[in-house]
Each structure stands twice: as structure tokens, then as C-alpha cells.
Amino acid sequence: MRNSKIFLASFGLISSLSVLACGSKDEPPAAACDKFDYASYKGGAAGLTFAKDVYPITKVTCSNAKTCHGSNAAGPANNEPQLGPIVPTTDAAAMMTIRDAIVGKPALEAPALKYVTAGDPEHSWLMKKVECVQACTGVECKKIPEAMTPCGEQMPNGGTPLSPGEQATIRDWIKGGAL
Question: Which terminal residue of the chain, N or C, has fewer Cβ atoms less than 10 Å from its own Cβ?
Fold first, then answer.
């Protein structure tokens, strides 16, 4: 019984720390960031494209609900950037429209950054959000009143964070020119 209580207390503490690590309600994180080492990063997989490599990640984690970044027949997504229809598409033109909505476009929450700066994942708002480092990298976060989630939240919000492999795919796609 005593071991069960110790386990539950330890689990609760670890869970609380992991939630606090990314901050919430537009506050800086309570714990130190575990930042990716961009100083030694040379880029990984070459030849990645949005349609083939990144869209499969975003359609499952980002545009799967209107309350996130997915649109439906009733209207656009509640949050910017718009990342396509809730129902996944195979239309190449639609995927390029989604890509064009994020590459080179200023991030509403962080006007000093672009959602995706082709060739520069370290200075892309998308990477800061999925890596959960926006608050500890000195990025000025602007509250968007109509946004459904606070600016300091890790993406995908309310879901499982992207795996290291998914993050690497997005990072490598950006580094390779965000094609």
C-alpha cells in the first residue's frame, strides 16, 4: 500500500512537471526548456516535401478539428494558420494551398517570425510551437483574442506532442527549403 502511494505521488509530480514545462495561459514555462541543438544541426533527410512528408503529420495532428486548424463546410478553422479540411485531401493543389499559407507568412502570435522560414527551422514559429520552446527562446508572444488556445501552448494543443521523428521530419523539411 505504501509503495502504491509513493508511486502515485511520484507519477503525479512527474505529470505536473511535464504539463508545466510548456507553460500555459501565455505564461513562461515553469521548467527549463529542453531545446533542440540547432548549433550542431546540419539537416537530415533530403528531398522532403509538404505533400508527401509533412501533410500526413498535419492532417492527423493539426487539421483534424475545426477548433484547431482544420476547416469544414461550415467555415474556416478557429485558429490560424488554416491547415486544410478536416477530411483529409489527396488533391495536390489543395496541399500546396496549405503549404503556401505557412511558408514565408508572418506568424500572428509571433509577428517577428514566420510560421515557416524556408531553410531556417530554428527561426520558424512552427518549430518553436511543436518543440515547446517559444517561451524560453525570447520570442515575444502576442495574444490573439479570437484564438481558441493560449499563445504559449505546445502544439498540437490538448493532444499528444509530436514524436521526435515527426518533429525531425518537419525540421528537415524546413531546412531543405520547405518545398
Answer: N
